[in-house]
Amino acid sequence: MNGKKVAILGFLFVVLVVLAVVFFTSGIKDKIIPATPASPPEVEPLPAQPGQTQTVVLFFLSEEDTLLHPEEREIPADSSVVRQAKRTIVELIKGSQKGYISPFPPEARLIELYVTDEGVAYVDFSKEIVEKHLSGSSAEISTIFSVVNSLAYNFDSIEKVFILIDGRERETLGGHINLSRPFLPLYDLIAR
Amino acid sequence: MLSLRKRSAQITGAVLLFLLLSVGSVSQIQPFLKLSVRDYEEFSRVIIAPSFPLSFEIEKGSSFLLVKIAIDIPFRIQREPFDSRIVKSFGWTKGRDYYILTIKTKIRDFSHDYFVIKDPTQLVIDFKEGADESRGDRDIRSLLDSTVSREGEQASAEEIQTIVIDPGHGGRMEPGAQGKYGTLEKDITLALALKLKDVIERNRPVRVVLTRDTDVSVSLENRAAIANTNKADLFISIHVNSSFRKEARGSETFFLGTEALDDEARRLAYLENNPADVERGIGGDNEDEITMILWDMAQSAYLKESSLLAETIQEELNHLLGTKNRGIKQIPFKVLTGVACPAVLVEVAFISNPDEERKLLTEWFQNNVVEAIYRGVESYIDRYARR
């Protein structure tokens, strides 16, 4: 071997080592990324970061018109859509802080809420939402669409909302609007 | 397609039209043409209502629709302000003996369907998002062909023989909404339904069937079933409204929102493609199951007619009662989904509003409401169906 050949071989060796290092480290990187989940699993609730909040928009009624009026509300920051959706509905049932009208009987409670992979939120209310309801078309429309719009508006992963009462499917709240299928939001009902 | 030359012709036309209009406005008895746009859940509707006989041609462009209207005299245009998902704006071009109305759309992919209504003449053009004409569309179109005239041809429509009136709620367990003074929705709806039956039968040779004529409970599905087994040609559900808002007042007429029907349609398609499941019987008597599914979808074939019935009734309610116009809306009402004919739900007034509750108890108000609904039905029959 002459000096020139050694130099070429040496150069090739260095290139090979560099390529190998790049190849393997990038390989390790690829393997590591999926091992750290982008979002923590729903079963392990993260304690809310003290001080950190997220703004959600809730929809209420007003004496002004027949539309749903937006009201912003701060809820503790949290990476779980389900927990944020629950907090949103709990805040919605609590009522407005700006004097808007609540489209819920005051006795109504949220029992459970879950979201499917297909983007359907199942919202389970206590039976008071039916028993204490006003039973009129307009009253039903405002109750249903304040829930549906408040969820779909704030959370991209919620497309449709299915309303359950006491863990079960129900035909209507008070004899009018069909609850047996999921609702899409009706943004036409929102005041601008 | 609009060429550049046509486009400049359009501008000149618009200027010409403006000049003609400003000169013509001196005259009182000038012909006019009214344009209105209204959005529904699934389509946007443009209504062209001329005061003169209408002869027209329609041509579709990539993001506009041209309506060539044959007329050689100037006319006034009345346009209502609108905000539509699909319709962007209107433009006018004048030809020698015609005008061209350009309806510009916000989207490129749209389909349209149109029909003509007589007395007064109206050209109704419905715009739908998406370029494809679905099979369902064509079904509705052929259905409409049989009930309204198209391009000036005289229609031969189905006769209205049976009207089913549905007094909302009923029975001890389902009183419906309740007023401050203790008035129950179920009593008012029954009183109104009995009066309406009486008025219709006295004035028209039609059979009127009530889904209940006493204070009994009838399930929502059975109300639709009563309509279908009686071969109803029109279905009118009468309700009294209630709201969390104290100030809520006025009457409102609803027809079905179809978003709710999508899932059922998919289920039916599934059953058609998987007959084995049907034979095995999903949850009991499979024939009943299929019948129920079909009935659940029944109303989807009548949405356009239902929208027209809702409009004629609401028009009369606004006119006669002088109540605040709450308009017509598309909402998935359970009672309407299974009805296989044009169907509406009328919310007469708000029992949650003490003023309106008091009114609802009076004979004159009840008679006025019945009169208004009757006139709405009459005008629907006169305009869209053969007597």
Can you give me a brief rundown of this structure?
The complex is a heterodimer of chains A (192) and B (387). With 192 residues, chain A is an alpha+beta fold.
Give a structural overview.
Chain A is an alpha+beta fold. Chain A folds into 2 domains: 1-36; 53-189, no CATH class. Helix content of chain A is 36%, strand content 19%. Chain A has a 3-stranded mixed beta sheet. In chain A, strands 1-2 form a two-stranded antiparallel sheet. In chain A, a hairpin with a 4-residue loop joins strand 3 (110-115) and strand 4 (120-125). Chain A is elongated. The N and C termini of chain A lie far apart (83 Å). In chain A, 30% of the residues are buried. Residues 25-45 of chain A have low confidence and may be disordered. Chain B has 387 residues and is of the alpha/beta class. Chain B has 2 domains: 4-137, Immunoglobulin-like; 162-384, 3-Layer(aba) Sandwich (Aminopeptidase), CATH 3.40.630.40. Helix content of chain B is 37%, strand content 25%. Chain B has helices spanning 4-24, 135-145, 185-203, 220-229, 261-273, 275-280, 286-297, 303-321, 334-337, 354-360, 363-384; strands spanning 32-39, 44-50, 56-60, 64-70, 76-79, 87-94, 98-105, 110-117, 122-129, 162-167, 207-210, 234-241, 252-256, 328-331, 343-350. In chain B, helix 3 (185-203) crosses helix 11 (363-384), helix 5 (261-273) packs across helix 7 (286-297) and helix 8 crosses helix 11 (363-384). Chain B is elongated and about 70 Å long. Chain B starts with a helix and ends with a helix. Mean pLDDT of chain B is 77; it is low at 19-28, 134-157 and 264-287. The interface between A and B is medium-sized, with 28 and 37 residues.
What CATH first level of the largest domain in chain B would be assigned?
Answer: Alpha Beta
* Poorly predicted regions of chain B: 19-28, 134-157, 264-287
Query: Main interface pair?
Result: A-B, 28 and 37 residues
Radius of gyration of chain B: 23 Å
> What is the mean predicted local confidence, pLDDT of chain A?
82
What string, H for helix and E for strand, traces the elements of chain A in order? Answer: HEEHEEHHE
Write out the strand line-up for the largest beta sheet of chain A, numbering strands in chain order: 3-4-5
Count of folded domains of chain A: 2
Instruction: Count every helix of chain A, treating DSSP H or I runs of 4 or more residues as helices.
Output: 4
Strand content of chain B: 25-35%
